[in-house]
Every structure is written in structure tokens, then in C-alpha cells.
Design brief:
Number of domains: 1
Shape: globular
Order of helices and strands: EHEEHE
Number of helices: 2
CATH class: Alpha Beta
Structural class: mainly beta
Strand content: 25-35%
CATH architecture: 2-Layer Sandwich
Radius of gyration: 12 Å
Number of strands: 4
Length: about 70
Amino acid sequence: MAYKIDGTKCLKCGLCVTQDCPEQAFVVVNKVKEDDGLMRYTVKIDESRCTECDTCFSLEWWCPAKAIVKG
């Protein structure tokens, strides 16, 4: 079962998409520029690409909100 992003925890910071996922499984679904210039990202993990290598889950700095969860 692939990893997923828990939308209730996600800060929409986009940090996960800037990391080096070996399978390039992180996909930006929506990107919104707020009035103050801050970018908000809605991201999903493509289950067909995710090999459950644990890279995103095991590296604490990958997601500061700990929104990446086992599916």
C-alpha cells in the first residue's frame, strides 16, 4: 500500500515536491498564490509510482507537518 498525504495535517507548503523522491511520485494537483504572495500547494502521491521506499516517510525534514502517512 503506497504512502498518502493526510490533507488534515498538510500545511500546503510544497516542501515535499522540492525533495528528491527517487520515483518522482509527488504530484502538484493545485498551486495557488495567496494575496500576500505566499504559494500554497495541494499535492498528492501518485500510487502507481510510489514504491514505498520509505525515503519521504523516514526523513523528518521531508514533511514538517508529518502529513505523509502509510496508505
